[in-house]
Design a protein that fits this description.
Strand content: 15-25%
Largest sheet: 6 strands, mixed
Strand order of the largest sheet: 4-5-1-6-7-8
Shape: globular
Order of helices and strands: EHEEEEHEHEHEH
Structural class: alpha/beta
Number of helices: 5
Distance between the termini: 71 Å
Oligomer: single chain
Bound molecules: guanosine-5'-triphosphate, magnesium ion
């Protein structure tokens, strides 16, 4: 006799279902250096259970991965994070978080493909890890906003000082966030979508 449990199909969780009103789906990448909070942001904001590919950090990373400021970090993303958020009834964002360790950056090109925009998470205690990240985005011509993930023991700097340090043009939005907070992470994504929209409007033929 076939048991009931073996032929029961699990119903998708309610939040896994996209509302039928959704008409636009957009791919967004969440990038940044090692340990800046990319996985945390995808986790906090995703309305579906996020897919993460975190592995325990091992001795192999000693001397390679700079853990200063994030000494309590025990896991790291090795492939990608994936999550989803509906910003309104029509617009859904698919979020792809990249690995932060430079030895996994070869995966980035694939993750950038088809991306409409990016969030660059920045930790002001380790600003220098963001330089290469921003360079890669500029090369790939993916528009981005900067989200300063406010770690409690990090100094805060005026936005214009950060803009200078990161050598960014004045139109690139810079916002402060707490990647652990859903509302804060959502605000970052709204800032990005507004920026992308302003872009589309200015590039439309007159
Ligand atoms: N205090 C504080 N801690 C945070 C915040 N965001 C992340 N963290 C912590 O910082 C550590 C690193 O966060 P992750 O989300 O793993 O960073 P990541 O950028 O995905 O790291 P990699 O994938 O290894 O590059 C974790 O221990 C988080 O709990 C934040 O906004 N505030
Ligand atoms: Mg991660």
């Amino acid at each position: 006799m076939v048991s009931r449990s073996s032929d029961t199909v699990t119903e998708p969780r309610h939040e896994d279902q996209l509302p039928s009103t959704v008409s636009t789906a957009v791919k967004i990448v969440i990038v940044g250096g090692f340990g800046v909070g990319k996985t945390t942001l995808v986790r906090s904001v995703s309305e579906i259970r996020p897919l993460t590919t975190e592995e325990t950090m091992t001795e192999a990373g000693a001397g390679v991965d700079d853990v200063s400021g994030i000494e309590r970090k025990t896991v790291t993303t090795v492939a990608m994070d994936f999550g989803r958020i509906s910003l309104n009834e029509e617009l859904v964002l698919y979020l792809f978080g990249t690995p932060g360790q430079q030895r996994f950056w070869f995966l980035w090109n694939g993750l950038f493909e088809g991306a409409l925009g990016a969030v660059v998470l920045v930790d002001t205690r380790r600003l220098e890890v963001s330089f290469d990240v921003i360079g890669r985005l500029e090369e790939a011509e993916v528009p981005f906003v900067i989200a300063v993930n406010a770690f409690p023991d990090a100094d805060s700097y005026p936005v214009e000082e950060l803009r200078g340090a990161l050598d960014l043009p004045e139109q690139v939005p810079i916002v402060v966030c707490d990647a652990r907070e859903r509302a804060s992470s959502r605000d970052v994504l709204i800032t990005l979508m507004r920026y992308l929209r302003s872009f589309a409007q200015t590039s439309e033929p007159q």
